[in-house]
Specification:
With 337 residues, the chain is of the alpha/beta class. The protein has 13 helices and nine strands. The chain has helices at 2-20, 25-29, 46-61, 79-88, 98-101, 120-127, 132-145, 183-192, 204-210, 220-225, 251-255, 259-293, 307-335, and strands spanning 33-38, 66-71, 93-97, 147-162, 176-179, 195-198, 215-218, 234-250, 297-299. The strands form two sheets. Strands 1, 2, 3, 4, 7, 8 and 9 form a seven-stranded mixed β-sheet that branches. The chain has a two-stranded parallel ribbon with strand order 5-6. α8 links the parallel β5 and β6 (195-198). α3 packs antiparallel against α12 and α8 (183-192) runs antiparallel to α13. The longest helix has 35 residues, at 259-293. It starts with a helix and ends with a helix.
Length: 337
Amino acid sequence: MVASRLFSRRTILGLVSAVCLGATPFAYAQKTIEWRYGHMNPPSSAAGIQANWLAEAVEKHTNGQVKIKVYPASSLGKLQELAEAVSTGTIALSHNTAAGIGSLHEPFAALDTPYLYRDVDHLMKTVDVDSPVMKKLNEGLIKSAGVRVLYAYYFGTRQLTANKAVTQPSELSGMKIRAIPFPIYMSTVEGLGAVPVPVDWSEVPTALATGVVNGQENPVNVVLSSKLYEAQSHMMLTGHIMNAQVIVINEKIWQGLSPELRQAVAKAAAEVRQRATDTVRTQETEELAKLKSLKMTVIGTDNGLKLDAFKASVKKAIDAKFVAKYGDLYKEIAAIK
C-alpha cells in the first residue's frame, strides 16, 4: 500500500513537472526517429539539394519527430552499394536512376529506356507513385527487396559529352564512353555508336581526366554542378534518356511509422517532388547557357546533329535486348495520358 501511494505521488509530481515545463506526458513518451539518407551526388547538385529539401520538409511535417541526416557524394557507398544498403536497412533512404533500382527489381530498368516518353509531363505521370505503372512496379520492389519508392522527380534529360564534335553515331565508332553500370545504360551508349565502359559515378572525373573514357552522358545540371566541362569540350544534345530520379525507403522502416507519421512523410515527399521537378525544368535552359559561357561547344540539330540517326541506332540496340522483356510495360507507359 505504501509503495502504491509512493508511486502515485511520483506519477503526479511527474505530470505536474511536465506541465510546468510546457510539455505533455505524451511528448515525453515520443522518441525522435533518425534516418540516414545516402546518395552519390555533390551537395550543390539538383539531386543533392532536393535530398536536403526532403530532410527539411520531413522534420517540418512531423514536428521534429523524424529527422533525416543526408550523406552526399558517395560517402556511404557507390551506386549499387547504396541500393543494397536501403534493402538491408543499413540506411533508410537513397536515390538512384530507375535502372539502378532495377538492380533490386529488374522491371524498374524499363523506366530508363531511351526515347520512351513524349515529354516531361508524360514521364512525371508515369513515375507518380499513384500511377498504375508505378503501383505495379512498387509492389514488385517491396516483395523482392523490401524497398518502397517514396517519390520520383524530374532529374533532367541526358546529353552526350566528348572532346570533339559528334553529329552522328558513326563518328563515335571506337570511342569509349562512360556508361552507368547497368544493362540498359550500357546498351544505350552502344546504340549511340560508342564503346560503353561501366564506371561508377564516384570515379567519373578521374576516368575522364586519365583517358579511361573519352566521354560520358548526363543531364545538363550534372555536367555543370560536377564541373565536367573542365574535362569535356563538347556537348551533343542527343536527349537520349529523359530521367526520373527515384527516391526509395526501406519498407520495414516505412511500416514502422505510425499512420500519422507516414502521412506526414508522404506529404513532405509530394512537396519536394514538385519543387525539385519545377526547379530542374526551369533551370535547364539557364544551365545550358552557363555551359556555353564556360566555353563548352553545344551541338544541336540546328548546327548539324543528326538526331534521327541517333534515335534509329539506339532503338535498334534497345529493341534487340529489351522489347521481349519489357514490351508489355512499354505499352502501358505509352497508354498513360
